[in-house]
Design brief:
Helix content: 55-70%
Number of helices: 12
Oligomer: single chain
Shape: extended
């Protein structure tokens, strides 16, 4: 079975499939484009939720980042492929009707006749060039997805080393030195692999450099899973046309990334995406203004910009760092084993088994860390665990404001922080609102 590819019958089969591959390309492109346009909004919504939730769920964020990047690459490349394939099919149909280009019939001047004959050439050459473009773009599309996956895996490897060996360690421990050595190896290997990638294999060509580079190349072929797609890469590199097209696509992708970051700024003083302050009312800080599915609370929000009721709601989005700060202010709450992160429902201990006194202590500590002022007046708060209509977890409280005067007010949410054995108070958010009671 392993020698099957050497048989003449198998080579004939490949040649036949190669000639008819355009039909499969169009079929796959059509189904893929339809599925991608359906999946992309859902992935964007999930990404926006995780970013707004600020729960530092790195694992799921990396998965969503790979999925969104892969979708973007596939949509752009497959649309380009379908466009060029359509042009190729149109060219074939035109060739059937009118054959090759007859420059004599055009009756152009000698200068244009010779120029077009040299530059444009035959119609068959144009069709062959389109065929090459289509085939290479279709193949490079899926190769680029593996490149994105490789980049994420490298970042994930660095994060894993820091988490396992360097997080909360000192240089008195052996594991710290192991972590530093692994981190240096991965970073140096990442730089060398990137140089080799953009130079199309320069480090493999020089004898003495290749000896140094080989251990990094071998390790990174496992980390990046490049052994799965390496034959495709080298098949591109040994073809001048494929190499030129691959280099041409790189600046196109960089330009597209840059273009997606563009926006039109209407003012020299405001960019209209600033966080809320005395002179800014950002919609992400008001629950009733989060209308679209992709709109989520960014850190802290109140219920509305205009308050008609004699109370105001304050919501603080849950963050892993909040719990870490609670442990600093109340060390007795820190468990012996940190059960946060990815856990199996079968083996994990339910939080319902934690007694109510510890939960009350947790919220009491939270209430000592966070405070709320309206204008310059401190208000008593009693934050409890809550959830928004968009399933964002956090802490919420309600404050009576019937004694406030009508008009504009500024609510400040402040947080205590331990810094170098001192406790300081920082303003986490300043949100303007207008009180007009019914």
């Amino acid at each position: 079975m392993s020698e099957e590819y050497n048989k003449p019958a198998f080579k004939k089969l490949l040649d036949r499939l190669q000639e008819e591959s355009w039909q499969l390309e169009l079929l796959i492109s059509g189904f893929a484009i339809f599925g991608l346009f359906s999946a992309y909004p859902a992935l964007e919504l999930k990404m926006a939720y995780h970013q707004a939730q600020s729960d530092n769920n790195l694992f799921f964020l990396l998965i969503l980042l790979v999925a969104l990047s892969a979708c973007s690459i596939l949509i752009f490349n497959l649309l380009l492929h379908v466009l060029l394939r359509g042009l190729w099919i149109g060219a074939l149909g035109l060739r059937y009707v009118s054959g090759d280009i007859d420059y004599d019939t055009l009756n152009y001047s000698t200068r244009f006749h010779n120029y077009l004959k040299n530059k444009v050439g035959s119609f068959d050459k144009y069709i062959a060039r389109l065929e090459n473009y289509c085939s290479i773009i279709f193949a490079v599309t899926f190769l680029l997805i593996f490149y994105v996956l490789a980049l994420v895996l490298i970042v994930g490897a660095i994060a894993l080393i820091i988490t396992l060996f360097l997080n909360d360690h000192t240089f008195k421990e052996v594991s710290t030195y192991i972590g530093v050595a692994l981190l240096v190896f991965v970073v140096v290997g990442m730089v060398l692999t990137f140089i080799d990638f953009i130079t199309l294999g320069f480090l493999k060509k020089k004898k003495w450099i290749s000896k140094v580079y080989f251990p990094f190349y071998w390790c990174f072929s496992i980390i990046t899973l490049s052994f799965l797609y390496r034959p495709l890469v080298y098949n591109f590199l040994d073809n001048k046309f494929g190499k030129r097209l691959s280099l041409f696509l790189v600046p196109i992708y960089i330009s597209l990334i840059w273009m997606t970051s563009l926006y039109y700024n209407k003012s020299n003083y405001f960019n209209f995406i600033e966080p809320s302050a005395n002179y800014v009312a950002n919609s992400s800080n008001y629950e009733d203004m989060l209308i679209n599915d992709s709109d989520f609370i960014n850190n802290i929000a109140i219920n509305s910009k205009v308050i008609n009721d004699p109370y105001i709601k304050v919501f603080i989005v849950f963050d892993k760092f909040i719990e870490d700060e609670i442990y600093l202010f109340n060390p007795s709450l820190e468990p012996e084993e940190d059960s946060r992160g990815i856990r199996s429902e079968i083996s994990s201990i339910s939080t319902n088994s934690i007694n109510n006194k510890l939960k009350r202590d947790y919220l009491d500590t939270f209430n000592t860390i966070y405070s709320v002022e309206i204008d310059s007046t401190l208000y008593k708060t009693d934050f409890v665990l809550g959830k928004t209509t968009k399933k964002q977890n956090g802490f919420e409280t309600y404050i009576g404001i019937k004694t406030l005067n009508e008009g504009k007010h500024l609510i400040h949410v402040k947080r205590k922080e331990i810094k170098e054995a001192d406790t300081i108070t920082k303003t986490e958010a300043s949100i303007p609102f207008w009180y007009y009671p019914n």
